[in-house]
Design goal:
- The chain is mainly alpha-helical and 355 residues long.
- The chain has 2 domains: 149 residues, Glycosyltransferase; 175 residues, Chondroitin AC/alginate lyase (Glycosyltransferase), CATH 1.50.10.100.
- 62% of the residues lie in helices and 0% in strands.
- It contains 15 helices and no strands.
- The radius of gyration is 22 Å and the shape is globular.
Length: 355
C-alpha cells in the first residue's frame, strides 16, 4: 500500500508539472518579449526591408542630440476657449518629447544601435526624474493623450544600456495612473484605456490589463451607434461650445479619428498581451466604426455637418491608424484612403509599421 501511495503522489506531481509546461507553451509567444507594441516578427520584417525605415532612421540621426524640456509642475491651460484653440507650449513639448522618445526607441528596435536607446532613455528619464505634480485638468488630459508614447518607447529600450527605469515606473504608476480618464464617456475614456493598457503591459499588472480590456469592450458598446458613427464625437465644434454653436460638427470627423486612434492602439497592446478584442462582438463594432470613418474620410461631403460648415471640416485625414485597422477589418474605402496617402496623426509611425 505504501508503494501505491508513493506512485500516486508521483503521478500527481507529474500531472502538475505537465500542466505547468502546457501553460507555458500555450501562452502567447510575445509575452516573452519586453516590447509591448511590436512582435519579434514585426521587427524582423522591418529589418529585412531597410528602404521602409530609411527616412525614419535618418530622422532619428538628425534628432539624436535633441534634449527633453521637462517641468516639475505640469499645468498647461485649457485646450479650448470660447473663441477657439488656446496655444499650449507646455503641452506641445510634452507631446513632442514623447514622439521623439518613441521614434528613438523604434530606431533602436530596428537597428540595435545603443545610441538610439540612450536617446530614448534620456528623454523618458528627464521627464520621470523631474515631473512631480499635474494640478490642471488639461495637464491630466495631456497625460492621457501623450504618455502612452513614452510607455511604448520605454518598453522598446528598457533592456538596453543597463537603464534604471525606477523613476519612470514611479511616474506611470503613482502620478499618471491615478489621472486616467478611462471612466469617462467620450474620447477621453478611450485614451484612458490606452494609458491603462500600456502601463499594465509595461509593469506586468494582470489585473489592470484585464480591467482595461473590460472597459475597452464597454466603450465600444456605449460609443458606437448602429450605423457605425460615434454620436458623442461627430457633433464636436472647435471651441467650448462643444456640441453646439455655429461651428457644430466642424471637428466631428477629427474627433472620430481622435477616438478610434487610441481604441485601435489599445486593441493592439491588448492583443499582444493575450487579451485580444479584435474578433469579439465589440470588435465588430470597431469594424463598423472604421467603415463609417473611412467612408467619411474618402467622401467628407457625406459627413452630417459638412454642409452646415460651408464645406469645411477639420482633421479629415488624421487617419494614419487606418493602416492597422485595414489589416484587421479590410474595406474598400479604407484601402483607398491609405492608397491616396497624406495620412496625418502619424506620431506612432503607423504608416511605416503597418502599411
Amino acid at each position: 500500500m505504501a508503494t501505491n501511495h508513493l506512485l500516486h503522489r508521483l503521478a500527481r506531481r507529474c500531472a502538475l508539472f505537465a500542466l505547468t509546461v502546457a501553460g507555458l507553451i500555450s501562452a502567447p509567444a510575445v509575452m516573452a518579449s519586453s516590447n509591448i507594441w511590436l512582435t519579434n516578427a514585426d521587427i524582423g520584417l522591418l529589418r529585412s526591408e531597410p528602404a521602409r525605415t530609411a527616412a525614419l532612421m535618418q530622422r532619428c540621426d538628425k534628432e539624436i542630440d535633441t534634449q527633453a524640456a521637462p517641468v516639475a509642475v505640469f499645468a498647461p491651460p485649457a485646450h479650448y476657449s470660447k473663441t477657439g484653440v488656446v496655444e499650449n507650449a507646455m503641452g506641445k513639448r510634452f507631446a513632442s518629447d514623447g514622439e521623439l522618445a518613441y521614434r528613438a526607441g523604434l530606431c533602436y528596435a530596428v537597428s540595435q544601435d545603443p545610441r538610439y536607446a540612450q536617446h530614448a532613455q534620456a528623454i523618458i528619464s528627464a521627464w520621470a526624474d523631474t515631473l512631480q505634480s499635474v494640478p490642471s485638468e488639461q495637464g491630466a488630459s495631456d497625460i492621457n493623450f501623450d504618455l502612452p508614447a513614452y510607455v511604448i518607447a520605454a518598453s522598446m529600450v528598457r533592456n538596453a544600456n543597463r537603464w534604471n527605469d525606477a523613476s519612470f515606473r514611479r511616474l506611470i504608476t503613482r502620478i499618471a495612473l491615478p489621472l486616467s480618464h478611462s471612466d469617462r464617456k467620450n474620447n477621453h475614456a478611450n485614451w484612458g484605456v490606452l494609458l491603462n493598457a500600456s502601463i499594465a503591459a509595461y509593469t506586468g499588472d494582470a489585473a489592470l490589463l484585464a480591467s482595461s480590456r473590460t472597459r475597452w469592450l464597454e466603450l465600444m458598446d456605449s460609443e458606437v451607434a448602429a450605423d457605425g458613427s460615434l454620436p458623442l464625437e461627430i457633433c464636436r465644434s472647435d471651441s467650448t461650445a462643444y456640441c453646439s454653436g455655429d461651428r457644430k460638427g466642424i471637428n466631428g470627423l477629427s474627433y472620430t479619428h481622435y477616438t478610434l486612434l487610441p481604441t485601435t492602439a489599445a486593441a493592439r497592446i491588448l492583443d499582444l498581451q493575450g487579451q485580444a478584442v479584435w474578433h469579439s462582438p465589440q470588435g465588430n463594432k470597431l469594424s463598423a466604426a472604421y467603415r463609417k470613418a473611412a467612408a467619411w474620410t474618402l467622401h467628407p461631403e457625406t459627413f452630417p455637418y459638412y454642409q452646415s460648415n460651408g464645406g469645411h471640416l477639420n482633421g479629415v485625414n488624421n487617419a494614419a491608424y487606418f493602416t492597422l485597422l485595414q489589416r484587421q477589418f479590410p474595406n474598400a474605402d479604407g484601402g483607398q484612403v491609405i492608397a491616396n496617402g497624406k495620412l496625418w496623426m502619424n506620431g506612432l509611425e503607423w504608416v511605416v509599421l503597418f502599411q
